[in-house]
Amino acid sequence: MYSANLSGAVMALRVLPWLLLLFPPALLAGLYAFGLYLPVPALGRSYVIRVELPTSGKPVNLPKVEGPADAAMPLVVIDAGHGGHDPGASGQGLEEKRLVLGLALALRDRLLQEGGIRVALTRDDDRFLVLQERAEIARRLGADLFLSIHADSAGVESGIQGASVYTLSEKASDEAAARFAARENNADRLNGISLSGQSDVVSAILVNLSQRRAQAESSEFAQLIVREGTGAIAFHAEPRRAAALAVLRAPDVPSVLFEAGFVTNPQDVERLATPEGKERFADAVERAIRIFFARNSRPGA
Hints:
The chain is α/β, with parallel strands linked by helices. About 45% of the residues lie in helices and about 15% in strands. Strand 1 and strand 2 (about 45) form a beta hairpin.
């Protein structure tokens, strides 16, 4: 009898942890199935807990393309960096993700106002996209140009200011560009996304050739931004940079990352966060985009 009771006690001890572990989710699932909820008196409210799981293999949701209905018109995809749980750099009471979204929206509105160019935003609200998704959106939409907008932080060095324009380089142009690339690419590693893929020799050669052409056009667009922005945008002493940035790795879409300024610098923040500053930014970059498309128009565009 004692042996039987001891065996039963041992079995109960073994089962108890599993019951404690499984009971809460089982209870919540049961309540949810019947449309019920758990009251939370301490907060004075009642809540229903809903968890949406992503569909396996679901493709990236493509944003709306705005502007002319004619698909022959050139398409620019504007990417506001960071978003969601990734605020980016911060300073002067501002977060990068909010600052660059304001610039992206201002540029979109200016392009649509003037007409003749189709526009899509990778995000128009505070959502998070991994770096691979951003470039993939441009490729799947068949974009003719991809512009990613960011802002930087200089830490305690609040005197550092000015905009820079980045194009892709397998080897960072200098140590600062290398650190910038490491910081941006880290956002992907946090989400477990690998940017390096497997390919055969022929595919590698084709991708390389396509990327060389895209990079030549990227460099041309970067130069246009600096030219058209001079006098309206405060640029860094060395505005042209190159870095191994993951968001610029689309092999067939000319891509540029515009580092609009430093959120740690009061003058840059004043220039980028005010309506007047956003308007000057949109005017300059819009002119650069139109000149780029005029030089690199496709048949029928």
